[in-house]
Amino acid sequence: xxxxxxxxxxxxxxxxxxxxxxxxxxxxxxxxxxxxxxxxxxxxxxxxxxxxxxxxxxxxxxxxxxxxxxxxxxxxxxxxxxxxxxxxxxxxxxxxxxxxxxxxxxxxxxxxxxxxxxxxxxxxxxxxxxxxxxxxxxxxxxxxxxxxxxxxxxxxxxxxxxxxxxxxxxxxxxxxxxxxxxxxxxxxxxxxxxxxxxxxxxxxxxxxxxxxxxxxxxxxxxxxxxxxxxxxxxxxxxxxxxxxxxxxxxxxxxxxxxxxxxxxxxxxxxxxxxxxxxx
Amino acid sequence: xxxxxxxxxxxxxxxxxxxxxxxxxxxxxxxxxxxxxxxxxxxxxxxxxxxxxxxxxxxxxxxxxxxxxxxxxxxxxxxxxxxxxxxxxxxxxxxxxxxxxxxxxxxxxxxxxxxxxxxxxxxxxxxxxxxxxxxxxxxxxxxxxxxxxxxxxxxxxxxxxxxxxxxxxxxxxxxxxxxxxxxxx
Lengths: 279, 185
Prior knowledge:
The structure holds two protein chains of two kinds.
Chain A: H1 5-10, H2 12-16, H3 22-34, H4 36-55, H5 63-72, H6 86-95, H7 114-129, E1 137-138, H8 142-149, E2 172-182, E3 185-194, E4 197-204, E5 214-218, E6 221-228, E7 231-238, E8 241-247, H9 264-271, E9 275-276
Antiparallel strand pairs in A: 1-2, 2-3, 3-4, 4-8, 5-6, 5-9, 6-7, 7-8
Helix pairs in contact in A: 3-4
Chain B: H1 3-16, H2 18-29, H3 32-48, H4 59-78, H5 97-105, H6 109-115, H7 119-130, H8 135-142, H9 146-164
Helix pairs in contact in B: 2-3, 2-4, 2-7, 3-4, 4-8, 5-6, 6-9, 7-9, 8-9
């Protein structure tokens, strides 16, 4: 469906706000790619949106208010907590070697599609690399970043810190994280750096099922790898949480997986990833 | 799923909204003490009505809608007789021009321009640009049609563009300091 310039300009705001989906979005992108004038309008409007977004950092609630709000809720009965805690978390961490811990709980928000998540991951990564998404917690210590997210996202997140083998150095560096909003719920955004290139990892409890793209299977996990806006986006689901990893690494995107699975043994396994046809 | 599990799930999501609710409350009323009161009242009402929250609807937008209602009630309570909701659409008189000028000089001019927006426009900017709500969710929160939300957002951005000028958008914008000091401790 070809769009006129007049129609395309009416859609600029909806496009930038992520409200334009499916064929409408494709038609808009095709028009803008071919039309210099509309591309300029889009860039100008995007500059306004990005500047406004960057100028409005989150304002953390004062500690006193947090304490008062916590006290309004009846204490959770012992043994009824839904997320792994203590020994269970430690056990899972050992079992997974270096994985993300999670709390399995259906989110209250509506469902999103796989393409929503891929587009959101690409947009978020680009905004971060342009300096338009400042980190709210800057630290290379996984436990510090994990602690910051506690109570801020509706799931429990423990970042891995894999052991480095003799003579080996870490392939990536954790830079920090922040909250982002995805389909009406908070998601965790984590910034890493590998080979001097940025890598973004989104973790959400929204009910979205990754699909499409090139399929890569690793143990019981199924990864979907797609290209968008010059980026490699890998999405997968693991035990109630959905992940999207974005980078512009020119090597195989699966290397990005080493952010989570960076131990020497796991790296060898990743390099032997079998490939299956696109589904 | 037992009732205790549902309550615990509610608690986790509700508490995760706290920073967002406080930031939204602060933007609405511009008073750290009042913002805390609004947020606390929001949680009290949410707790009372938690069994009415639809599992199919976003709990987060539901919490923001409660806060918005609490704020609207507060505004109505304080408003002199004879003024209507339309008064919200004029430039906010509580945005002190001297304070705004100071902030402009210290590099926070865009934030100052946002703070000077009429209330409904500022709400739309906050809900979209900070909290990332969809048009549909924003419509539920502020209780108006999605088309009105979209129009407010577009008009807010047009006002910001006008107040800053096109050349200024290309300049680096200083980040206002994180306003932890805005709250009382």
